[in-house]
Amino acid sequence: ERDDTVVVERVYGLLGTRGGGTGRLRFKGTRVPVENVVLGVGRGAEVFNVMMVPERLTPAAGAIAMGRAAIALAGRYSTRRKAFGKPIRSFQAVSFKIAEAVSALDAASSLVFAAAKACDLYGSVGAGRQDGTPVRRLVSEAKKVATESAWFAINQAMQVMGGIGYTDIYPIERYLRDARLSMIWTGTNEIMNLLIQHEYYAELERHYGKQREIEHDATTTDAEDDKVFE
Description:
- By secondary structure, the chain is mainly α.
- It is about 55% helix and about 5% strand.
- It contains 6 helices and 4 strands; from the N terminus they run ββααββαααα.
- β3 and β4 (about 85) form a beta hairpin.
- The N and C termini lie far apart (about 60 Å).
């Protein structure tokens, strides 16, 4: 429970997600009752894996929702806004931005769904999985791809709307500010890359020699002298 040993030293002003808030806390001799220790002393890594891995799907799914809202606004705007006597959606320079953004969001949404399903079936660290489903890699990919796709889509939406999209007349500027955090929290996208490559290389090593040798798909399979690795 909070008492005088927990001090809020500063509440930060934020670029976006201002409804949440964050700050700097100082703990001065704070004692945690035994009954409040989750799982037990020394089991923090277990808590982290159970909680943090699936938590990364929250910014992933939330970012996609922001991206879809931004594109919907831009789509309606481009239908009503006219230039040279025609709705600007009739110009490919505009409509192709919508197409690229929608495609990116749909692909990201499928990846988030696949990662969420894997978490439901096998747990956040893939315990007990039977088919080799790489849960942690899927979640990391989903978080990275979804947040970057949303950022891309919101930028496309603002570009379609032009200067008015940069104002607070429309909520595009707020989506842009809020979406930026999604590439940072619950692990930056650089950390997601680190996890993805680590998990993938581990999978390659586990499967080496157990699957068909794809190098034999080459038309020249006996040129071993030309395969130089050092």
